[in-house]
Amino acid sequence: MEALLEKLSLDDAPTGVEDVKSKGVEKSGLAANIHVLAGKAESKDEAEALAALALVKALAEGAPDAGAITKHCLAACLEQGGHKSKAVVSAATDAALAICKNVNPFAMKSLLPVIFSKLPVEKKWPIRELALKCVASFGETAPKQLGNALPEVVPEVTACMWDTKKQIKKAATDAMREACKVIGNKDIEHMTEKILTAISKPKEVPEIMHEMAGVTFVQSVESPALAMVVPLLLRGLREKQTATKRQSAVIINNMSKLVDDPIDAAPFLPLLLPALETNASSIADPEARAVTEKAVEQLNRLQGLAEKAVSVRGDVSKLEAEFKKALGAESADGGLEMCLQHAATISTCMMDLHFMEDVQWKKNISPTLGNYYDAAKCEADIEKVRVEAEKMMEIPEEEDEEDDAEELCNCQFTLAYGTKILLHNTKMKLLRGKKYGLLGGNDSGKTTLMRSIANNQVEGFPDSNEVRTVFVEADIQGEQSHLSCIESRSSGCSKEQVREMLATVGFVADGKAKPDHAVSTLSGGWRMKLALARAMLQKADILLMDEPTNHLDVINVAWVKKYLNSLTNVTAIIVSHDSGLLNDCCTNILQIENLKLHQYKGNLDEFVKIKPSARSYFSFTESKLKFKFPQPGPIEGVKSKGKALMKMSKCTFTYPCNETPTLFDISVQVSLSSRVACVGENGAGKSTMIKLLVGEIEPQTGDVWKHPNARIAYVAQHAFHHIEAHLTKTPNEYIRWRYANNGEDKESLVKVTMQFSEEELKLQKTPFEIQFTDEETGKVTKVKKMVSELVGGRKTNKSKDYEYEVRYAGSTVDSGEFLPAKTLKKMGWDKGMKAVDMKIAQRAGLYVRPLSTKNVEQHLEDVGLDKEFGTHYRMSALSGGTEGEGRPRRRNPTNYLDRDSLGALAGAIETYDGGVVIISHNNEFCSKLCPETWVMDAGHLETKGDAEWMLKQDTKIDDQQQLTEVTDAAGNVTKLKGQKKKLSKKEEKQLVKKIKAKLKNGEELDSDEEEFAIEKDLI
């Protein structure tokens, strides 16, 4: 090789390659003369440089086993990228790319320091461009290894993306795009182009941060993903807009919780922490500042873990020492030392990527060491080093205290609900016969975990054929409640087996609970016993129990405790707020905290000694979730909360497709103090009755009345269809858009009762004689006119009746004229007046609480939707459950609510000053809140309750004390007429005579006279 290099020409490349392939790097002289070759490759003499570069390219492609030596020419090849000769630049490019593409993929990290040294702005731009092309080439030949190196690659390449030279900018963007492809995190791989845009176009950062905030992170966050996202997050933290700074803090907080190995985050903490701390002390908005402080706290926690963590990353110096020791080459130098360093680099990368099989190590390292040792020695010594490397990767685990119990489960899993991660890469170990109390804050995932175990949805959990799990629920499905205890719990067993098992828990023919009676006859305590018996019939290995003692009396709680303690061969996981149960029954405590499941030995008292903060799980005063509804405020003139604001009288309704009515002769009423539970079987007519009450539909017979100033909110089961066109808005933005027109609801339900009938439309198109009186002369003028629309104004006249502002047909401007309600009713505008009343009532609500961002944010938070989701997350990023929060009458409001949220909803309803009607199948919820009950059974209504007016409502609803006056949004007081006294024939005859005389003389009738005249067709 030495002789060849002395007189090197373009034609010598094949000779050099064959020499190295046949003799090896040492005997051929390549190792000893590599620096000579590198020097010639960097020569200013064009011919010499071309010959050397051709040999380098040929060696890289034809003798890849010599890569440990050949790679030392890379710096010279890159430097020649700036040569004045195009031929040399082309040859240098080919040679550099040949080295990068043909080096062992696991050794690519050893090339990075050389490449990075050519990127500073002081270097000629062609040199920098070539170096960036080398980085991009790894995306094709060494994608996994490039991903592992991203923490080093991204900062270097990012700096070049801001370069003023367009060639550098393009090469850097191409390199970064290749790097993005190897992140290995499916949660953000769809964001790669946007991340590139954010780096090169800072103005796009706020919009991209919005999209990033909607990403649900499920996968473990490792260093490649962090390397790619951190530059974007740093930009977000430095933006002027507080909202963008806040979103960056939220994303940092969420991502950092999914970092399994703190060592992965260690390189990025010095970048993120100072920027976060600066924001935490400088952001003016207290809420955004608090969010940033949380992120600082989380990163400080992660930093503490990183400092304590035992690094299992491959260390080149340690592996090089192991190779020297195994091969007996402690004094190695020259080519051997280069090969050992190369082997150590390959080994460390394989460790980082968990390529630890013996065949993998032999395949990747033997060719390098084969230049100096025979195959047998190579294989044996590589295996020695691999075993030592495996020991370096072991993390010492805490030893469990001796326990002879059978292991039922030992798994590692991630658990999510919708877009929310509940547990991430956490371990769970369960032993037979142990009783585990499962603790965690609100929405931490306790019930979801148990349901997932029961449904065989936890990764790594033993199959139900091996370990039988049963979720113990006391609530019997509605369709089963009519069955007998034996029929409802057959579980594939014979009736005799079921009867025998039920007898063991107290179900006997002459006992309190009889096995042949319907489940619906059982109390809560007996239902729990029935559920436990079912679990034992299924021969459960693991019982999953959610609040097993809720609302049980003392005797039944004691029975449950005794029963659990008697199950020495059955494991139980128990979620309960009953500290007595957890103390008397639990042998271990499982706590959900920071997305991990932590296990502690002992009962609740022992656990609280270790973690005193856990007391808050059981102290409702300390940790109770609270909802709060906005108070409606008083209605002027209504002195009693018991006065009716809505009522139905003798209403019968039949759907068009049916012959039999769905509702028969229904009479109900609702006041401000109403707390009504509407219950009944599916199809009994509950929803139909509520739709009648709120005006969604109208009855064929009977009357429905609503106070003109009452504001009614109806939340149906399927209340989300409106938002589908607004998924790019946050909930806060959507509410402000929807009610922006002075509080008027842009998406009010189109009610049948607000749509004009054909008869009403005909009346509206018929000219009506309207009487006008000149105030100065007293002259009466009669004109026939048609009203084209009501323009929204409303006032009271001298008689304290409403008059509505109208626009006449043919007029292009508002007339400013008002017509009395009675006249408009005759003209077919009754529903139009109701629409005006509704708009005015909605605006009145806005006066109480202006529609500002802060007020809407507070309102959403009052009903359980955190600021995070209410103001800063677009609705497209929310789960179905979260979308429904914050919607003001309720239809099945308890669907999907956990016990804490149910308690919060109950508390909000208790303190709410308005009336509430609830349709729910949750008996516990209804019985707690509602002293009045409407029981629907096949369209017939039975009322129950202790409200005085409720006792008489069926027969005396019309005797209800009437409202005497109301005040509208403008402060106008309107007297309401009481029920009219029925006139005798004589009184009626006298009134007819009086009205005729007034009409003859052109005198104006008062409101009662006018109404009577209309009724009797006198006018």
List the keywords.
43 helices, flat, 23 strands, 1019 residues, alpha/beta, six-stranded mixed sheet, five-stranded mixed sheet
How would you summarize the topology of this molecule?
Elements (H helix, E strand, L loop, with lengths): L1 H5 L6 H15 L2 H12 L4 H17 L4 H4 L3 H6 L6 H17 L9 H5 L8 H17 L1 H19 L4 H15 L11 H9 L4 H9 L9 H15 L4 H16 L4 H4 L3 H14 L3 H23 L7 H12 L6 H19 L5 H12 L5 H19 L13 E11 L2 E12 L3 E5 L6 H9 L14 E4 L12 H4 L6 H10 L19 H14 L4 E5 L7 H13 L4 E5 L3 H7 L2 E6 L2 E6 L2 H7 L9 H4 L20 E10 L9 E9 L3 E6 L5 H9 L6 E6 L24 H8 L19 H7 L3 E6 L6 E6 L1 E10 L5 E7 L8 E4 H6 L3 H19 L4 H10 L4 H6 L7 H4 L6 E2 L7 H13 L4 E4 L3 H7 L2 E6 L2 E6 L2 H9 L8 E3 L5 E3 L9 H16 L6 H9 L4
Parallel strand pairs: 3-6, 3-7, 4-5, 5-6, 11-19, 11-20, 18-19
Antiparallel strand pairs: 1-2, 7-8, 9-10, 9-12, 13-14, 15-16, 16-17, 20-21, 22-23
Helix pairs in contact: 2-4, 3-4, 4-7, 7-9, 9-10, 9-11, 10-11, 10-14, 12-14, 13-15, 14-15, 14-17, 15-18, 17-18, 19-20, 19-22, 20-21, 21-22, 25-26, 32-36
Structure commentary:
The chain has 1019 residues and is an alpha/beta fold. The chain is flat, with a radius of gyration of 40 Å.
Please sum up the structure shown:
47% of the residues lie in helices and 14% in strands. The protein is built from 43 helices and 23 strands.
Report the β-strand fraction as a percent range.
Answer: 5-15%
The residue-averaged pLDDT reads 78
Radius of gyration: 40 Å
Q: Which consecutive residue ranges, at least 5 long each, have pLDDT under 50?
A: 619-623, 879-892, 947-974
Question: How far apart are the termini?
Answer: 124 Å
- Number of discrete helical segments: 43
Number of strands: 23
Helix content: 40-55%
Shape by Cα distribution: flat
Determine the structural class based on helices, strands and strand pairing.
Answer: alpha/beta
Please describe the biggest sheet, giving its number of strands, its sense, and whether it closes into a barrel: 6 strands, mixed
